[in-house]
């Protein structure tokens, strides 16, 4: 297969990156564009940030368009892949990066929290994979989390929704083959989340055997590797500095916070 960068624009593959307006999704979009992919920049409410991502792609010599959709609304989710095909002429990959990350635990768990997590983190990925299959096939990469291999009960609804998505990797890879490959990338501590401060993030990022966790570029490179590897399906790359190798009873943010509190005068 020719390198995407050697193809004329009309033949360059198209990747839909959900949640591509900012953070890890933006990095994935920019990395793919730098390697010859046209990018469908999905956003829900961050229109200005999505427009900036599109501009950044164009300034780097790539092609991108922004597409708005609330993926928790089934009809909007169903319409997204057809909109990308209409706008960019084709679709070859879906990177399910958009995610809802809220804290709850067993004590605070409720049906509403689980429903929000399912609608944001699990169901849209299945609908978009099915839509890619209907559009002719390609590659799906689901962004997961290393905590599935190193579980703790923090962020309970989020974790359960990502565990369901990891199981969907296998089921979708079976159901949609041979025209669709389905893979996962599981990052570790990559960016600030929640109310994590700079010192807590720095400490959390070092809590791995390699003494560094993943960066957005690490995640983007792993995604691109899977897109370019036609013999890989139904499996996940853990990109976390080895964090999954060491048991942690709580989320690393809380471990870092507790360590800082013990050092405080």
SSE topology:
Blueprint: E1 14-17, H1 23-34, E2 38-43, H2 47-59, E3 64-68, H3 74-88, E4 93-96, H4 111-121, H5 123-134, E5 138-143, H6 156-176, E6 180-187, H7 198-205, H8 216-227, E7 236-239, H9 252-263
Parallel strand pairs: 1-2, 1-4, 2-3, 4-5, 5-6, 6-7
Molecular structure report:
With 265 residues, this protein is α/β, with parallel strands linked by helices. It is 44% helix and 14% strand. The protein contains 9 helices and 7 strands, in the order βαβαβαβααβαβααβα. The protein has helices at residues 23-34, 47-59, 74-88, 111-121, 123-134, 156-176, 198-205, 216-227, 252-263, and strands at 14-17, 38-43, 64-68, 93-96, 138-143, 180-187, 236-239. A 7-stranded parallel β-sheet has the order 3-2-1-4-5-6-7, sandwiched between helices. β1, α1 and β2 form a beta-alpha-beta unit. α1 (23-34) packs parallel to α2, α1 (23-34) packs across α8 (216-227) and α5 packs parallel to α6 (156-176). The mean pLDDT is 92.
- The separation of the N and C termini measures 62 Å
SSE succession: EHEHEHEHHEHEHHEH
Q: What gyration radius follows from the Cα positions, in whole Å?
A: 18 Å
What's the shape? globular
| Number of domain modules | 1
CATH architecture: 3-Layer(aba) Sandwich
Helix content: 40-55%
Annotation, overall tally of beta strands: 7
Provide a count of the helices: 9
Name the structural class: alpha/beta
The CATH superfamily appears as NAD(P)-binding Rossmann-like Domain
Which strand order spans the largest sheet, edge to edge or round the barrel?
3-2-1-4-5-6-7
Mean pLDDT across residues: 92
CATH topology: Rossmann fold
């Amino acid at each position: 297969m020719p390198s995407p960068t050697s193809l004329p624009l009309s033949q360059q593959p198209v990747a839909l990156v959900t949640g591509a307006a900012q953070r890890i999704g933006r990095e994935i979009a920019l990395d793919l564009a730098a390697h010859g992919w046209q990018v469908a920049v999905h956003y829900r409410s961050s229109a200005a940030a999505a427009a900036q991502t599109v501009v950044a792609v164009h300034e780097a010599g790539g092609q991108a368009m922004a597409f708005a959709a609330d993926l928790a609304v089934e009809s909007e989710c169903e319409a997204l892949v057809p909109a990308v095909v209409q706008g960019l002429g084709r679709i070859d990959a879906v990177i399910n990066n958009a995610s809802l990350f809220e804290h709850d635990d067993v004590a605070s768990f409720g049906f509403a929290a689980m429903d929000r997590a399912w609608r944001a983190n699990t169901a849209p990925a299945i609908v978009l994979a099915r839509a890619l299959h209907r559009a002719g096939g390609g590659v799906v990469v689901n962004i997961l989390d290393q905590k599935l291999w190193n579980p703790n009960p923090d962020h309970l609804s989020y974790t359960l929704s990502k565990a369901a998505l990891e199981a969907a990797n296998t089921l979708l890879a079976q159901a949609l083959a041979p025209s669709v490959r389905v893979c996962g990338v599981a990052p570790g501590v990559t960016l600030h989340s929640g109310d994590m401060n700079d010192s807590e993030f720095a400490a959390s990022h070092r809590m791995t055997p390699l003494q560094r966790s993943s960066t957005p570029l690490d995640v983007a490179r792993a995604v691109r590797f899977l897109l370019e590897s036609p013999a890989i399906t139904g499996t996940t790359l853990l990109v976390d500095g080895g964090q999954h190798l060491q048991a942690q009873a709580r989320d690393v943010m809380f471990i870092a916070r507790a360590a800082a509190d013990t050092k405080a005068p």
